Amino acid sequence: MSAKRDDIQQQLEQLRASYLAQLQQGWSDVMAEAGQLLEADNSGWQSIAQALKLRFHTLAGSAGTFGLPELGQQAKALEMELGAWLDIDRRPDLTSKQQFLERVQELSNHSSHQQQQLPSTLFQPSDDEFTRKARILVFSKDGQLGQQLHSALEPFGHQVQSVQQLELLRAAVLERQPDVLMLDMPQQRVPQGLKTLINTMQKDEQHPTVLFVVGEKESFAHSLAAVRLGAAGYFIKPVNAAAIELRIQRLLTKRQQARFRVLIVDDDVMLARHYQLIIEQAGMEAKVVNDPAKMLIGLQGFQPDVILLDVNMPECSGPELAQIIRFKDEWLGVPIIYLSSETDSQRQLDALVKAGDDFISKPITDQALAVTVFARAQRARQLAEMMTRDSLTGLLQHATVKDRLSDEIAKAKRSKQELVVAMLDLDHFKKVNDQYGHLIGDQVISSLANLLQQKLRKTDVIGRYGGEEFLLALPDCSLQKATDILNNIRQSFQAIPFSAQEQSFSCTFSAGLARVDTQLSSDENIERADQALYKAKHNGRNRVELA
Ligand SMILES: Nc1nc2c(ncn2[C@@H]2O[C@H](COP(=O)(O)OP(=O)(O)OP(=O)(O)O)[C@@H](O)[C@H]2O)c(=O)[nH]1
């Protein structure tokens, strides 16, 4: 367990201790209120019963979370009993009230002896220390495959090491902890020693390795043998390095997504803090808003993937809050999960009809909370990505990249920092399509997209502007620096060997750069970069020109 997780565990335990202390202190108030109920006259009993009902409702929703599920169940039963009296609006008779008081007394005595049931294993999605640059180990009896992959994948920043003997492979695995093993498998049979090693690598909890198999021919039997070894990809010789790189990127992108963000809106400070710690322990980011009125500010600053909303809050209810969220188009896609100890399914459905996507009944186990939130966040992120990202390259789509450029121009205007806009276009790309087909053309486009993602900063904006055109916005970057970066990418791209129909070929691109003039619109700035691109094409292609 990492230091951060140790720390979270410690905080959870402290929180439980505070909860128990608060619970013990609270019993005298509960007993006093229950005593008042006994003595209350016809007109006063409802308000006391209402207050008690709320107390037991809160207890029913929180006790299980803090390791006291039995107490939670008993509190729920008392809440329901009070609810039944209030529903028919009839003062309970003396015997019922006395029995009620006894049950409260019993519960209070018991609660100090109840043992906390600490949660078992918590949900922790695998640790991801991946970068977009992969460590690739090639195991092949001849050195050719290693050499080929080395020259094809190094331009993307991947580290490729090739070994030819099992003993060396073992040593390399220990030393380098590869992300990917490329196994040259000329036959379907693999020696047992190698099988065992591969199996161990794949199951490594800290750093599982992904297996790609390279075979001699496209056949069902070979593919099946690869599947049985646990391969995530099967390629045939001569290998198409661009296709392999695409697979690697997909793998890495999936693993190094930014952490999911969860906004928790709950007026119960301790419970909200507990949920926050559980969600953080599961590798997500969580922010708590205890005051519903501050929720919109929380939303703006945090941009959550999921909102967890308490249903019963004093100022306004969860469904009301959910409707306020849904007033804004920008939050329409964010899933809202209600958290409530409400067990009446009709009321749950009513809440969902108003707004909201899911209902979690309190108490929920820590594991179930983390899994539900993680799954919702993952799905929401996928959908959001699909809406704004180009399916071939994973880059921002035309409209989104233009929007992002406008945002960057506004930011640059405020911060007075330099911003560069760049337009890139593949050279003679029609010929690539004509000669090798559209599919290979697509691979070339994807490779350039991957290279751009690899070489540019996280803060840079990268979009697919048109078929074989890309638009970039490089904030806080001088024109000179941007020229150097683009030239470096241009050279790396030129060095990538593509292969099709047993032929190898390379591609180039041209680029036009402009320092953004914040007085101009984003379209006008794009136009300036486009003119520079035209100059680059006119001056012979495979070059970078400035506006
Ligand atoms: N494979 C593939 N080809 C595309 C895609 N989008 C556009 N293209 C092709 O890209 C080619 C662009 O050709 P042109 O605009 O004539 O330019 P070019 O051949 O690249 O020549 P220059 O830009 O002048 O160097 C066309 O053949 C389009 O069909 C795509 O998504 N996939």
What would your notes on this structure say?
- The chain has 547 residues and is α/β, with parallel strands linked by helices.
- It has 4 domains: 3-111, Four Helix Bundle (Hemerythrin (Met), subunit A); 135-255, Rossmann fold (3-Layer(aba) Sandwich); 261-387, Response regulator (Rossmann fold, 3-Layer(aba) Sandwich); 398-546, Alpha-Beta Plaits (2-Layer Sandwich).
- It contains 19 helices and 17 strands.
- A 5-stranded parallel β-sheet has the order 2-1-3-4-5, with helices on both faces.
- Helix 3 (69-88) runs antiparallel to helix 4 (94-111) and helix 16 (429-436) packs across helix 17.
- The longest helix has 37 residues, at 3-39.
- The model is unreliable at 126-131 (pLDDT under 50).
- Bound molecules: guanosine-5'-triphosphate.
- Guanosine-5'-triphosphate binds next to strand 11, helix 16 and helix 17.
What CATH first level of the largest domain would be assigned? Answer: Alpha Beta
| Straight-line N-to-C gap | 53 Å
Query: How many domains, as an integer?
Result: 4
Strand order of the largest sheet: 2-1-3-4-5
Question: What is the helix content?
Answer: 40-55%
Defining traits:
single chain; 547 residues; alpha/beta; Rossmann fold; 5-stranded parallel sheet; binds guanosine-5'-triphosphate; phosphoprotein
